[in-house]
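Is this the right way to post structure tokens for a design question? Let me know if I should format differently. Anyway, here goes:
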């Protein structure tokens, strides 16, 4: 793995995201939830979107800083993106997420991409915090977030995954924590 960088995609690059969303291995983390989302397959976690739906999504998400940010994650030696990272303002909190394509998981990309996202969010756009709610059984994800400076908070939620209760807890990093690191 070489240097990681984030790049906001052009509309012509949406096919990468569309392919990842249809890949059961990449979207396995998303399976079992009761999501009210058009094109969502509960068994696989995949999401199928038409080209028109992707363009509408793009128009709503891309170049909407500082309230929304979306970028592909690149390894400088690879010729295509390996995942995506994003945040959006939701009830006064910047919720965020990261998705790494299945074949690139477990190689340290999440940690480096989180650091890049923090730099953009806190230095360029000066937002006050980034937050994600992650199920406690996603040990690798939690490890990456904590290594990148996030801490668990007291906020937790119960989710049903294939009918079984799962606990998810908030991980948070503030601009102040980032600047004091």
């Amino acid at each position: 793995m070489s240097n990681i960088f984030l790049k906001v995609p052009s509309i012509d690059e949406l096919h990468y995201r569309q392919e990842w969303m249809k890949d059961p291995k990449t979207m396995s983390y998303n399976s079992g939830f009761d999501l009210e989302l058009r094109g969502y397959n509960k068994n696989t976690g995949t999401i199928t979107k038409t080209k028109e739906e992707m363009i509408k999504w793009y128009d709503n998400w891309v170049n909407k800083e500082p309230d929304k940010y979306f970028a592909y994650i690149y390894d400088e030696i690879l010729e295509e993106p390996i995942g995506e990272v994003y945040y959006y303002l939701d009830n006064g909190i910047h919720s965020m997420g990261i998705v790494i394509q299945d074949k690139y998981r477990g190689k340290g990309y999440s940690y480096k991409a989180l650091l890049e996202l923090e730099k953009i969010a806190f230095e360029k756009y000066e937002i006050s915090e980034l937050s994600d709610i992650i199920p406690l059984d996603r040990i690798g994800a939690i490890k990456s977030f904590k290594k990148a400076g996030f801490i668990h908070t007291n906020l937790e939620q119960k989710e049903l995954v294939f009918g079984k209760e799962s606990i998810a807890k908030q991980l948070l990093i503030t601009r102040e924590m980032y600047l004091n690191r």
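Format looks fine. Someone answered above. Worth noting: Residues 81 and 177 are 29 Å apart (CA to CA). The mean pLDDT is 93.
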